[in-house]
């Protein structure tokens, strides 16, 4: 598409460049002393056919320049795509690492909680044992007191 646009532009410029334009300005003095200025523009298109070798050379030059411009655009687009891909890959790696870090920390917290719960369970059992032994001792004392 871009090649067609540039080619059309060059052909139109070339066509305009081949048109000859002449401007004439005439001043006429009337009998009453006033001056009238008339400007005439004459446009001529050459009657002879343009040299086709020059046209073909110009066409080839345009094609070469359009191809070069297209290649530069393609290279710039590829470079931008590569940068975007690299950024996306880096972001993906960073997200994966962050996910692993979160999982590791969550596991540590889970282990800490589990250890705390187990410790609390042991403390509760120990407290229950101590309380039960005190109740037994108190029951023995009450029984002994009742026996007396």
Strand order within the widest beta sheet: 1-2
What integer value in Å does the Rg equal?
50 Å
Q: In what range is the share of β-strand residues?
A: 5-15%
Helix content: over 70%
Low-confidence stretches: none
Q: Could you tell me the mean pLDDT?
A: 82
DSSP strand tally: 2
Q: What gap, in angstroms, lies between the N and C termini?
A: 118 Å
**H/E topology pattern:** HEEH
Number of helices: 2
Structural class: alpha+beta
> Mind describing the biggest β-sheet?
2 strands, antiparallel
The dominant shape is rod-shaped
Tell me about this structure.
The model has no long low-confidence stretch (mean pLDDT 82). The protein is 76% helix and 14% strand. The chain has helices at residues 2-17, 52-147, and strands spanning 20-29, 35-44. It has two helices and two strands. It is of the alpha+beta class and 148 residues long. It is rod-shaped and about 165 Å long.
């Amino acid at each position: 598409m871009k090649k067609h646009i540039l080619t059309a532009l060059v052909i139109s410029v070339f066509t305009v460049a081949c048109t000859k334009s002449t401007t004439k300005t005439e001043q006429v003095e009337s009998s009453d002393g006033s001056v009238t200025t008339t400007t005439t523009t004459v446009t001529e298109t050459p009657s002879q056919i343009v040299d086709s070798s020059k046209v073909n050379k110009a066409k080839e030059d345009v094609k070469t320049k359009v191809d070069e411009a297209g290649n530069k655009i393609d290279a710039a687009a590829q470079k931008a795509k590569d940068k975007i891909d690299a950024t996306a890959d880096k972001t993906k790696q960073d997200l994966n690492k962050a996910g692993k870090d979160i999982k590791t920390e969550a596991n540590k917290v889970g282990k800490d909680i589990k250890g705390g719960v187990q410790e609390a369970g042991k403390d509760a059992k120990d407290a229950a044992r101590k309380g039960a032994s005190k109740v037994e001792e108190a029951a023995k004392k009450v029984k002994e007191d009742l026996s007396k």
